[in-house]
Design brief:
Blueprint (H helix, E strand, L loop, with lengths): L1 H30 L12 E2 L3 E4 L4 E3 L4 E2 L3 E5 L2 E2 L14 E2 L3 E4 L4 E2 L4 E4 L2 E4 L4 E2 L4 E3 L2 E2 L13 E2 L4 E3 L4 E2 L4 E2 L4 E2 L4 E2 L4 E2 L7 E4 L4 E7 L4 E4 L5
Parallel strand pairs: 1-4, 2-5, 3-8, 4-9, 5-10, 8-11, 9-12, 10-13, 11-16, 12-17, 13-18, 16-19, 17-20, 18-21, 20-22
Antiparallel strand pairs: 6-7, 14-15, 22-23, 23-24
Length: 224
């Protein structure tokens, strides 16, 4: 009986310490938020995190981003072909913008890289490990390491109101995901997805579409 009582007391003590540590982490996370383009209210971005050029990032009210995020508004890219003297000459400069809407949620490990513009509208929900980039590393020359080639195929990304983006999804440049659409886990989105559709796969393809008349998801048949 005495051992059980001691174990219970230990469990309670450990639980209380854990709660205090968690609360402290949340306070530190709030206190150390960078200054964004706007003065958002009620936002939460967990630790650890890496935010590059926050003055080019707009985050809406009550947004919640889990730990491990990387938000990059890329103003310049230095990894270019070596100059004759062995130095790396600066080749590319950008005026990027990241816009995240109100009540956005992301579980964790979100990565957004913007060279021009990435827009995520209101009430969008992300699972973990979502990757979004509006530009690609160049690969036009197979004789030069790709990290030294310029960023290309830069084109804005828009994820519209109310979408649900699943685990491990990749969204590539130039894509618009329509309002209230769902992207299934492990999908790679390479082209536009219409409103109120469910898309899966690599590349992502629409498999279901919402029928407003029947108020139900229906199997989508591509007639092309």
């Amino acid at each position: 009986m005495r051992i059980k009582l001691i174990n219970r007391l230990i469990d309670k003590f450990v639980f209380r310490i854990g709660v205090k540590i968690q609360n402290s982490q949340q306070k530190i996370a709030r206190a150390t938020l960078p200054k964004f383009k706007n003065n958002a209210k009620g936002i939460s971005i967990g630790l650890p995190r890496r935010i590059i050029n926050p003055h080019r990032i707009y985050i809406g009210n009550d947004a919640s981003i889990g730990p491990g995020c990387l938000l990059m508004a890329v103003e310049e890219y230095n990894g270019v072909t070596p100059a004759a003297d062995g130095e790396y000459a600066l080749r590319q400069k950008f005026t990027p913008e990241i816009i995240i809407g109100n009540r956005f949620t992301s579980t964790g490990s979100l990565q957004i890289s913007a060279h021009r513009k990435v827009v995520i509208e209101d009430d969008v929900m992300f699972a973990s490990n979502v990757f979004i980039s509006d530009g690609l590393h160049g690969y036009e020359n197979a004789l030069v390491p790709y990290r030294y080639q310029e960023i290309f195929k830069i084109s804005p990304i828009i994820i519209k109101n109310g979408c649900w983006i699943g685990q491990n999804v990749v969204v590539l440049p130039g894509v618009t995901i329509g309002e209230l659409s769902i992207i299934g886990a492990n999908s790679v989105v390479t082209s536009d997805i219409p409103d109120r559709c469910i898309a899966v796969g690599s590349p992502a393809r629409v498999i279901k579409k919402w029928n407003e008349k029947n108020k139900a998801w229906e199997r989508f048949v591509d007639e092309k």
